[in-house]
Amino acid sequence: MAGQIFTYITFKNGVPDDSALELVTAAKQIAPDASPTAVVVGSGIDALCGEVAASYAEVWKIDNEAFANPNAEVTRKVLMNILPNDGILLLPHDTFGMDLAPGLSIKMESPFVPDTVGFEAVEGSMLKCVRQEYGGAASTHVACDIANGVIINVRPGAFQPDESKAASGQVIDKSADAGDLSTKRVYLETVAAEVGDVDITKEDVLVSIGRGIEDEDNIEIAEDLAKAMGAVVSCSRPIVDAKWLEKSRQVGTSGQTVKPKVYLACGISGSFQHLGGLKGNPFVVAINKNAKAPIFQIADVGIEADILDFLPELTEAIEAL
User: Fold this and answer.
1) What one-character DSSP code corresponds to residue 140?
2) pLDDT per residue over 187-220, tens digit each?
3) Tell me, which fold does domain 200-320 have in CATH?
4) Phi/psi at 196 (nearest 5 deg)?
5) Where are the domains of the chain?
6) Is the domain 5-177 a CATH 3.40.250.10 member?
7) Among 57, 59, 138, 223, which has the highest number of CB atoms less than 10 A from its own CB?
8) To 10 degrees, what angle do helices 219-229 and 307-320 make?
9) What's the longest Cα–Cα distance across the chain?
């Protein structure tokens, strides 16, 4: 393998994102004996770095007030200064990662692979990355030369989190190596997602519906199931775009981030935008009539069925119990 593997750690309110543990698993799929280095960029992040060190042998800390708010432009400068030319950098394929990674690959003259869901063995300096196309109907195997490093966005939820937390790693302060932190971007504000009559972020069980519900009148089927289970109905973006449910019910990168114990994905294909809002490693039950829907790849239980036929039968069975 050409170089060391690094992971970029995203966080919110001082708590590392679930992707921090998922990227450990992704790194080990590239190289089973890999000991990836975590990179944490922020302001006042000592406690955060200590928590990340439980899962990484080495954590590089870049602490500066310039990173009090997210800014991909200035973060790009820092990573250019501290990463080796042959480094393999894994980042979450979320809104910030998509802003940061493409420009970084250009500046570092390294290949860039977005929305990666798997890796194949490294052969010499060639790494094969697996991506999904056409809504998961086809897989693309992309070979890239990593002799000069590579920047890879990893789809959230594509890898099981490594929860061993047995690293007891070392935190190394790289703040002095950050270099020029000037930027043309100006942070304005963070707009929080609205909260409606039900706060889906606090629910343990969600019955989530997507395009497979087909018609607004059919939402009642999901509501009946949710009532029988003591759950709440949530949805994917197409349902909100159709104005069938309010935006506060939307799960995804442009909606709410949820951490239920059980998540029923009903007629949802499983785009990375939707899965990006699903955290906490819930028990996922996917029901979809398309056997090739990408949601099945992250589901604990997959059921190939039309939800309009299956949900009423499931509701009846639960009520009978």
Assistant:
1) E
2) 888 877 666 678 898 899 999 999 999 999 999 9
3) Rossmann fold (3.40.50)
4) -95, -150
5) 5-177, 200-320
6) no
7) 59
8) 30
9) 66
